[in-house]
Design brief:
This protein is an alpha+beta fold and about 80 residues long. About 45% of the residues lie in helices and about 25% in strands. The chain has one domain: GMP Synthetase, Chain A, domain 3 (2-Layer Sandwich). A three-stranded mixed sheet has the order 1-2-3. Strand 1 and strand 2 form a beta hairpin. About 20% of the residues are buried.
Length: about 80
């Protein structure tokens, strides 16, 4: 899969989960995709410092990204 297509699929996944984050006063941005298997994102707003953000990242964000792009193995939150 081409890098642009992979990035597009990851963005579609983020767009799917973004309304849930925004309803809690947060957001998420895609920073990079490394080696075609690792996605680096940055949680923003209320998501920063939220006690459940790791759970949100793994169960929500990572699961949604893997649904759209199964080759992704890991999603990492990069602190601001």
């Amino acid at each position: 899969m081409e890098k642009d297509e992979l990035e597009r699929k990851v963005e579609i996944a983020l767009d799917e989960i973004r309304p849930f984050l925004q309803s809690d006063g947060g957001d998420i941005i895609l920073l990079s995709i490394e080696n075609g298997t690792t996605v680096k994102v940055q949680l923003q707003g209320a998501c920063v410092g939220c006690s459940v953000n790791q759970m949100t990242l793994k169960s929500g964000v990572e699961m949604t990204i893997k649904k759209h792009a199964p080759q992704i193995e890991e999603v990492i939150n990069v602190e601001a």
